[in-house]
Amino acid sequence: MDEHRIAKYNQNRLNSDGARYMDPDVAKALAALGRYLQLRNMRAKDLYRFKDIKEIREKSEYFSIPEFQKILVSMDLDLSERQLRDTCYYLDAEGNGKLNVGEIEEAIHKAKRQAAPRDTMSKLADIVRHDPFAGLLNMPTCIALNSVTKK
Question: pTM surpassing 0.85?
Answer without folding.
Answer: no
